[in-house]
Amino acid sequence: MKLIWKFNLVLLAIFAIGFVSAGYVSHIVLQNNAREEMLHSARLVMETALATRGYTSTQVGYNTNCCGLSIQYRHIGVGVAARNEWRAAFAVANFGSFGNLRRNERLF
Question: What is the 3-state secondary structure (H, E, C) of 6-24?
Answer without folding.
Answer: HHHHHHHHHHHHHHHHHHH
